[in-house]
Structures are given as structure tokens and as C-alpha cells.
Known about the structure:
single chain, 126 residues, alpha+beta, 29% helix
Amino acid sequence: MNRKKVFTGSPWEPVVGYCRAIRIGDRIEVAGTTAMKDGEVVGVGNAYEQTRFILETIEKALRELDADLSHVVRTRMFVTDISKWEEIGKAHGEFFREIQPVATMVEVKALIDPRLLVEIEVEAIV
């Protein structure tokens, strides 16, 4: 089956050997996405701002694969401080209020950079 890949210039994509998103047939998988732009953390200390930036990045990747947020069927949110769930949930709701994919939010010990508060991955079906 044909694979179409999206890269976003993350400093870790070439080192670790992955792409931001991949489409195979009608299925799209988006890798764990954080609030990184040009090697710098966006929204340091602000879980809401990081979540919005992440979801905008995911939305752009989906568009490159001829999809959009309405095709998302699952989101997984990894957060370093679960007490920030309302800020993260508010941003998530701004993007998915009408779409309502299944969603998971779990607290993790740490992400790849200590300034990162949120990492999100999604699955979509076109």
C-alpha cells in the first residue's frame, strides 16, 4: 500500500527516524506532537497555549494528507501535570467540541524537554 508522509522539521525526526504523520489508505496516524517550533518550546509554562499550538500543528499535518480534524477518531494526551487538565481540555474542546473523538489524557513523569507540558497523538480515518 502507498505511504504518504509528513515531516514538520522537528529536530528529533531525523535523529530518531520518524515522520510527523503517515497516511496508508484511509488511515492516518499522527506521532506524538509537542509545542516545538524551530527547536524552541512554544508557550513555556502555559499548558493551554502549548495544547493549542500542538493541535494547530496536527491540523496542518492532516491537511497535507488530504484530511482535516473531522476525520480524527482518537486523541491521546500525555501531560506532565494532570492538575492542568482543565486548561488542556479547554484547548482540546475548541478544536474537537463538535467532532468528539474518543480521547485519553494521562499524566506522565516527563517529556523529552522539561519545559514541555503536553504531547498529543491522533488517529484519523478518511
